[in-house]
Write a structure and sequence with these properties.
The chain is of the alpha+beta class and 179 residues long. The protein is built from three helices and nine strands. The model has no long low-confidence stretch (mean pLDDT 82).
Length: 179
């Protein structure tokens, strides 16, 4: 890693670490290690900004190492993610035991200087990248790219989103009937 030091932001490392440097601290375009030199025991990444990491802290005092968890769940409120999302749920979505997980969350929004309480149904976990088109060789293009002509894949994607929309409507009608 020493040869890549100029490309890394290692300001979150221990100051006694030979890689520690605050030269690139908060510099745009520099890579920052999420776990500050600790050992990653397990990683489950579904998409960009949607991952779960189990990290083992290194102990120099001879005690058993502590394991902690770190997750990124873009679009989902932090307190809901901590309460309802687990490493096992990430693995279920990754292994297609469960294709998608949605959550209800409440937010306060301002529109034209008026505050509103908004109930949202958000997709919390999904391994489907709805912004990229995967080519047979594994490379990708933007979903709306003019060269994406494989209609069978696009039809499958449309069917999948139609199914999710159908499930949302069924869930809304069942929750409305309970109220």
């Amino acid at each position: 890693m020493m040869e890549l030091k100029e490309e890394l932001d290692t300001s979150n490392y221990d100051p006694n670490d030979p890689l520690y440097s605050d030269v690139n601290k908060a510099v745009p375009g520099k890579f920052k290690e999420e776990v500050a030199g600790q050992t990653i025991k397990e990683f489950c990444g579904l998409r960009e900004k949607l991952y779960f990491i189990k990290v083992q802290e290194s102990n120099d005092d001879g005690t058993s190492p502590k394991v902690y968890q770190k997750m990124a769940t873009a679009g989902t409120k932090g307190h809901l993610a901590k309460k309802y999302l687990s490493h096992q749920r990430f693995l279920d979505v990754l292994n297609e035991t469960q294709t998608i997980m949605q959550m209800n969350q409440k937010t306060i929004r301002s529109y034209q200087h008026k505050l509103y309480n908004i109930d949202q149904r958000r997709t919390a976990l999904s391994s489907i990248d709805d912004k990229r088109y995967v080519l047979p060789d594994g490379s990708t293009r933007a979903l709306g790219h003019h060269k994406n002509f494989d209609l069978t894949s696009q039809e499958e994607l449309f069917k999948l989103f139609h199914e999710v929309d159908k499930l949302d409507k069924e869930d809304e009608s069942s929750s409305a009937s309970r109220n």
